[in-house]
Amino acid sequence: MNKGILFLLIFSLITIAAGFYSCTKDEIPASLVNPGGCDTGTMSYQHDIVEIINNSCSFTPCHVPGNGNYDYTRYEVLADRIRSGRLEERLLLPSDHALHMPQGFDLDACNLYKLRLWIHQGFPNN
Question: 0.70 exceeded by the pTM?
Answer without folding.
Answer: yes
